[in-house]
Amino acid sequence: MGNLKVVIADDEERICQLIQALINWDSLGMEIAGMAHNGIEAFDAVVAACGGVSYPTTGSDGSGFELCKKLGQKVCPDILITDIRMPGLSGLELIEKVKEACPEVEIIIISGYAHFEYAQQAIRFGVGHYLLKPINKAELTETLEKLKSKIGQRQEFERDKQVLIQKAQKNEDYMRSKLLTQLLNGEPVSLTEEILQNQYGITLKAGLIQPFSLKMDCEEEALGTSSVSVLMEKALEILDRNLREKGLDPIMECQGFYCIGLLNYESRQQEDVRRILKNALAQMELQKAIFKSVEFSMALGKAVRRAEELEDAGPELSRLICQRL
Asked: What does DSSP assign to residue 304?
């Protein structure tokens, strides 16, 4: 984890400088990403750090300020330290707009006014850190350390979540591969929409489900196993590109000279699918400089409306691909 980014906002420049000087930011693993002396400047600093842009406008709230929703890829600042009273946008208006643009930003309110109603309003926006002027170094340090710990825990949780998502995705990929391998080997399978969803992570949309198979014809002894893999991968690139360009999302699995796939599309696209597959096959034919003596054949299985009707898809495709001319 790199240094946490901090933005400081206070209409008194000396207060900003004091906050900057009070803390050994490096020892906390933090750095000052920006400083501002009014609410609009502060919001600009946060949005700039987020990779977004802001522009003046005539708003109903009278602030004359609005966020352009186009946010970029930069990381939002982690912490905003702001005075509750500033020109342009008050601290509360600033908090509301910042939370809308960058919900993950942690906020510390600093104020010379010990009015509990400010804290109450700030809590509505998820702000629970409220410090009074004059700023106490120990209290500010303690608050920053708590936020650092909170941010660290959140980032760790996000990392763990991503790991779990990746593991689940790998498991789904494995199960899909197993299903298609069964079909490829001509094995009957028992399927329902629920089984496809729960076991294989495949959500069917209304329309048709259609299996297809691609067969590479060549002498393995002449090419070698590695060459077969390379040529099959090239053929699959052509097939995948043609399907995805037309908004189709194929599920495919290869095994040696064979590839099997499933398509799920709207009924009106049935003839389009045939044309797309024929076009892909024609493009493979044009790759003779690479494929040399290799030929490709394709079989298109029966289009069905229910997952249960896929039970005989494997044997049917095996029969069709073997009957090719």
From this structure: B
Q: Cα–Cα distance between 183 and 180 in angstroms, integer? A: 5
The tokens 């750090």 sit on which residue? 49
Residue 268 in tokens: 């009106």
As a whole number of angstroms, the distance between CA 135 and CA 85 comes to 15
The pLDDT, as a whole number, for residue 67 is: 33
Element (H, E) at 41: helix 39-50
Pick the closest to residue 273 from 281, 282, 263 (CA basis): 263
Query: According to the 3-state scheme, what is the secondary structure of 233-260?
Result: HHHHHHHHHHHHHCCCCCEEEEECCEEE
Name the amino acid, one letter, at 39.
G
Residue 34, SS3?
strand
Tell me how far apart the alpha carbons of residues 141 and 24 are, in angstroms, rounded to a whole number: 9
Q: Which of 107, 42, 120, 100 is nearest to 81 (CA)?
A: 107
Lookup result for tokens 């493979």: 284
Give per-residue pLDDT as tens, 90-136.
778 888 888 888 888 899 988 776 556 666 677 777 777 888 888 88
- Angstrom distance (rounded) from CA 74 to CA 71: 8
Q: Is the pLDDT of residue 75 over 90?
A: no
Q: Answer whether the bond into residue 134 is a cis peptide, omega within 30°.
A: yes
CB atoms closer than 10 angstroms to residue 248 = 17
**Cβ neighbours of residue 292 closer than 8 Å, sequence gap 6 or more:** none
Q: Both tokens of residue 187?
A: 């094995």
Q: Tens of pLDDT along 143-164?
A: 999 999 999 888 888 887 777 6
Buried residues in 54-66 as b, exposed as e (16+ CB within 10 A): beeeeeeeebebe
Put simply, whether the predicted model's pTM sits higher than 0.85 gets the answer: no
